[in-house]
Fold this protein.
Amino acid sequence: MRPLSELATALAERTVSARELIEHCLARIADPCGEGARTFLRRFAAGARAHADAVDQLRAAGARLPPLAGIPVSVKDLFDIAGEVTTAGSVVLAAEPPAARDARCVERLRAAGLIVIGRTNMTELAYSGLGINPHFGTPLNPHQRVRGRIPGGSSSGAAVSVTDGMAAAALGTDTGGSCRIPAALCGLVGFKPTAQRVPRDGVLALSTTLDSVGPLAPTVACCALIDAVLSGEEPRVPDAFPLRGARLLALSSYALEGLEPYVADCYERALGALSGAGALIASAPLPELARLPEINAKGGFSAAESYARYGALVRARRAQFDPRVVMRIEKGAEQSAADYLELVRARAELIVRIAGRTAAFDAVVMPTAPCVAPLLADLASEEAYLRMNGLVLRNPAIANFLDRCAISIPVHRAGEAPVGLTLMGEHAGDARLLALARGAESVLSAGIVVV
């Protein structure tokens, strides 16, 4: 699938129709040799075709349409869609009443003319960075698919829907990296905005403190266009921030622990390319980050807030949940009110401390994940699952805890295992970060293809 701006131009010039795009996506989803059955929990074929036909008819009649009208998008199974049950990748929630209206983000996508083609699979209740779902199957990573690598999560189906041409872009959520991890492991761009910028009405919460809503797409420009729609702005692509003189802080510890040699090589090559383009890169450890494991030792905000939301369901129907998700929710029962208040205090203190250290920089840079996508078969044991889950969440979760924006950009070479580079901006510095990411992407993307 081509970038959104190219699709928008083709639609406006009527060299392709919205119906043709929809039929292409539906064919990809239905391909028995593909990942459609594991990627989509629900597809809206009839509604998507009707919407596409309406767009094509209006365009043929000369109507002035929004620039993205007719482009197909997928929506993670965490967002309310009118008349549908929002199951969050869980069989337990299937008996819940259907949504009375679309989530505000979905309303905004539709208002911008984008066509929702279906609901994508995910980690149950969004509580893991690996993307494994025992109820509906796990969509396989496009890289070495025959070997069965995980897609990353929790927005697993979102990523695969884009890599496999089942949608032009995907709507996901990000509580500790759930947009950026699957983007990095599958070779896409994933953007986590400052949480308050995008409304979460009609989105099932994992952590009301950490949740944010963001896109996964082929390019930074694509993510910027979708982000603008989600935040209620006019869709536009920001001008690329010039790299010459850009000040980047490369983390030298914590985020580099346990780095696979191949990922380390990709990371160093990316830093070298950015430096060669004129970026001024300083290396520093941000030692305060070493406190995060201790601060979150009792499960952090996600455990406490998910237990408040799902604790009664877990107690009543525990056997029907993914046991690896349940064990993390149940950690919330270990937290007292005093523990939670201390967590709030520690977060506020860390935000202030690190803001002082990074204020002189345009972005903080680190590997998105310290590893390439592991094989699904290697994560069968509880020990292996928990170790890998903690590893892939460690770096992306920094931005959520600090209430900042962050983006992951592919930095691997064509044909190699996907690797993502994270640029983390300041709180509410989303526009500047997206502009900087465009500049970085132009340097880093040479030879990169979705595999």
User: Anything to note?
Assistant: Residues 337-358 form the longest helix (22 residues). Residues 350 and 356 are 10 Å apart (CA to CA).
